[in-house]
Automatic annotation (TrEMBL):
Region entry Disordered, spans: 268-290
NCBIfam families named in the record: PRK07109.1
Classification via PANTHER family: DEHYDROGENASE/REDUCTASE SDR FAMILY MEMBER 7B (PTHR44196), DEHYDROGENASE_REDUCTASE SDR FAMILY MEMBER 7B (PTHR44196:SF1)
Name this protein carries in UniProt: Short-chain dehydrogenase/reductase SDR
UniProt KW keywords: Oxidoreductase
Domain of life: Bacteria
Gene Ontology MF annotations: oxidoreductase activity
Assigned protein family: Belongs to the short-chain dehydrogenases/reductases (SDR) family.
Length: 326
């Protein structure tokens, strides 16, 4: 189907206060979209909207907790009341806990699953009807390359990303079966240089870091914005993720051995943890796109470009299946 140009779209970004979500809201606004920015952090939302409007963009802030269904329903109602429709919905919200399975309490596993998996399910259940009311739109869900290959010392997060990725796959096929005009795109980033690492709850005693090499959050934002007009089944961001994906596909046992040797070192630094996290509380302060790795980020990546753009016949066939079902 023909989708509105980005400059004509109304876009909801859930989890917009920092990191990839904030970069995505800024990029949509830069390209002319009207952006409804939602998250728990009120101060971060306020500074985000101020930044967008100061640059001549259009944005609205809405405080919402992804684990509260009433917040999500109110978010949809506010977006449709103010702007008439929702064309693209991006679910970015996520939290993280690092440590061994033995060291991480069960309630923290539950909390990560509540946000990263069940929160995404709840958001999709309100987003899809809104996108259908607009005549057809795109639901973009944030998973991770850790939803393809799990990493040690990050079990709550990686398990939640496997669940989210599987959920979006199932939803995509169900919508095609029903003849829905809504497309579902899943984003699988590698290590991205955002405040995610500083904001993760940490039971390793050492500050965590993105597995090298870290990529720029703007690289992910570019891919997400492209999905709004050219949706793909999934897009992988960061060529370094190819090693994880191929290792899991062709020799998972050897990949286990490699990660048992380097898995902890590649995710932790020598610095002590700062003791802060956003697992149960909103992003503190004004919010920011980049973390402590901003000076060492990869900002261009051929693999990412190909992942987002190369034609895939199976996806075209699924779109045809949806049309036949209408």
């Amino acid at each position: 189907m023909t989708r509105r140009d980005v400059a004509e779209q109304v876009v909801v970004v859930l989890g917009a206060s920092s990191g990839i979500g904030r970069a995505t809201a800024l990029e949509f606004a830069r390209r002319g979209a009207t952006v409804v920015c939602a998250s728990r952090g009120e101060q971060a939302l306020r500074t985000l909207v101020e930044e967008i409007t100061a640059a001549g963009g259009r944005a609205q802030a809405f405080r919402a907790d992804i684990t509260r269904v009433q917040d999500l329903q109110a978010l949809v109602a506010a977006a449709e009341s103010a702007h008439g429709r929702v064309d693209t919905w991006v679910t970015m919200a996520g939290v993280s806990v690092y440590g061994t399975v033995d060291d991480i309490p069960l309630e923290e596993f539950r909390r990560v699953a509540e946000v990263n998996y069940l929160g995404h399910v709840a958001a999709a259940k309100v987003a899809v009807p809104a996108l259908e009311r607009s005549g057809g739109g795109v639901l973009v869900g944030m998973a991770s390359v850790e939803g393809v290959r799990s990493l040690p010392f990050h079990a709550p997060y990686t398990a939640s990303k496997f669940a989210a990725r599987s959920f979006y796959d199932a939803l995509r096929v169900e919508l095609a079966h029903a003849g829905s005009p809504v497309a579902v795109s899943t984003i699988l980033p590698a290590g991205i240089g955002t405040p995610f690492w500083e904001n993760s709850r940490n039971r390793t005693s050492h500050l965590t870091k993105p597995p090298p090499p870290p990529y720029a959050p703007e690289l992910v934002a570019d891919v997400v914005v492209r999905m709004a007009t050219h949706p793909r089944r999934q897009a992988v961001v960061g060529g370094a993720s190819l090693g994880f994906i191929l290792g899991e596909k062709f020799n998972p046992g050897l990949t286990d051995v490699v990660l048992s040797l380097v898995g902890r070192r590649m995710q932790t630094s020598r610095r002590p943890d700062n003791g802060t996290d956003i697992v149960s509380t909103p992003t503190p302060g004004p919010g920011q796109v980049h973390g402590e790795h901003a000076g060492h980020l990869i900002r261009r990546d051929l693999f990412t470009t190909l992942s987002a753009r190369l034609p895939r016949p199976g996806e075209a066939l699924l779109a045809l299946r949806a049309r036949w079902a209408r």
